[in-house]
Predict the structure.
Amino acid sequence: MYLSLDLQLFAGEKTEKATPLKKREARKKGQVAKSTDLTNAIVLLASFSMLLIMGEQTVTRLVNLFRNGFSNLLLVELTEESTPILFFELLKEAIWITVPFILAAGIAAIAALLSQVGFLVSTEALKLDLKRLDPIKGAKKIFSLRSLVEFIKSILKVIVIGVITGLMIWNQRGIFAQFSQMDLYNIVTYLGSLMVKLGVIISAVYLVIGVGDFLYQRFDHGKQLRMSKHDIKDEYKKTEGDPLIKQRMKEKQQQASRARMMAEVPNAQVLVTNPTHFAVAIAYEPGEMSVPVVVAKGADFLALKMREVAKEHDVVIMENKTLARALYASVEAGQEIPEDLFKVVAEILAYVYRVKGTLNKQGGRKNEA
């Protein structure tokens, strides 16, 4: 029993990597591989690192702000003149406390995005697309492999953060037991320091998860951009043109070029042949041209047609295999004779002028008779 297999059925399978053009078009639409987890991890790590560096200074400023607020500022009489001054004083202090952390988080976010996708501005995502409201596609996304990966990743983050937090608290259980003997300021300072250290460690672990997520996003993005062989052929036709149309255009250009060259053959002084494979028509008008010019050339069938036209218009045909091959290979129609062939061409033209001169004299004598 024989089974026939139609390979065209697999033409639509998206098995090929995306072409550079497909990647550029996707990038213009804002479709790039990026990991939100990696960006969040870098921002968190930068923020907690800034807290670790400037934590003591920040706590001192906050304590002074509250002390000043609950002591000196309560005694200030609120008037139309004093209220704006008081407000701007508090705002200035708040800015000094928060700006370093805002700057650190902002710079980290920009650096994280640039490192993943580079500089990219796209408004495609803001355009209204009714396809996004398709409930069938929405259901497919919910039960897709991507959703499963996101679910596993979320569980992994919760487990990792929970385990790290639990281990750190367990290791500090002896100090927690001494809280009853410590004053409130030391307890708050210790808890603040512990939270910052915990944040740095969790952010570092989260960064590792983010890197893994970014690698997966790149893989998934490449998978979504995959193309079928048919897609690649269509893209090639769009960029390079349909091969059949290009072939027809090339044939028409060749026909036009042959017609132009055939029209130039009667203007030549000599047709150098090989004797049938190649033919090169050379024109030279003393006083009008400084150098002889190849006005037409052809091979095989075109060479034979050039011989016929030359005979019809009394153009001298001379067989010179070496010169015909050299001119055909090195000189295009409309170009001047190269310097290394001057001597050979000059001898041929001199011979042609002698032949034409003799023929003209004989024709004159016949007319006199």
User: Anything to note?
Assistant: Residues 42 and 103 are 13 Å apart (CA to CA). The chain is about 65% helix and 5% strand.
